[in-house]
Please model this.
Amino acid sequence: MAKIIGSECVLAHAVGEGSKCLKCKDSCPGLLLHYWRNRCKYCGCSRDEHDVSKSETDQEVPKTRRPYINPPVDHADQKMGEGHVKQRMRQFPVYDEDLDYCGSIKTAEESKMAEIFLNDRKTRRGKGEKRQFEALIDQWICTQCQVLMEPNCFAVFVEHAKGKVWHPECFVCAQCKEQLLDHIYFWNDQEQKVYCGRHDAEKRRPRCTECDELIFGDYTKAEDKTWHIEHFTCFSCDAPLGGKEYVLKDNQQYCCECFAKQFTTKCETCGDNVPFRQCLSAEEGGAVHAWHGSSKCFLCAVCRKSLVDKTHFIKNKTIFCSFDCHRLYKRFEK
Model:
């Protein structure tokens, strides 16, 4: 799907391309958004974490089955400032509410989402009402902090929880603790708690780690995260990883081939590159050292005994089989 920026026509996922990452700074060469991951190909951060100019995201983009760029924001939100708008977008993803913004829901699943999920949410959402007590006839206690409300203080009331009240600063999502005053809340009657839209949705449906949309069909789960089956892929080459061996690095999953190409390590003994499947590694002082997993390289620095699958310890990138050998090594060093 394309959109017009000035006199140019660009793909929706290319909006803001090259923008500096506010989180990674100079280590990211600039935003290059993956066409369905909703994350930068270079650093893995979201588009919102890059310095994309507001003028680029404000223009109208046709909704029909397109990559998510910018939801409709009402004038009241705009008056609250850009920070308020970004919080609204984060707490209340438009693709959780409007099927026209979803790119991963199959046709057979759309009716299921509309009938069960959307209709249920409509009955539990609202905006908190902030008003001042003129006097306290009854004793009101804040639902969040359990402290007695004082006379003439301000309090937040919600239509779904009669008889409950919050201090304005206590009216937060039960999970992420972000403020819900002036934002949409969702009432969980079973827990007697309020949630932001994002975390209310995630209590009912799994969310795809890559595209950020809710999952209404089969999915893959690994590392305590969930993915659409078709989105559980190598971060580098997009090859499917279901049922295959993969490597996790910097919170991204890679196929073994891409990991070996991009993150080759040198053997501390011989100095040659270590293929991933032959690598033995150990962490020391926050640094990871690697060796060929063979008797020629992974061996005691003193007695030269192979330590593959045997007890050992590492000191200053050097392998030892025992403290006796380590003491001898230190004596030779002097």
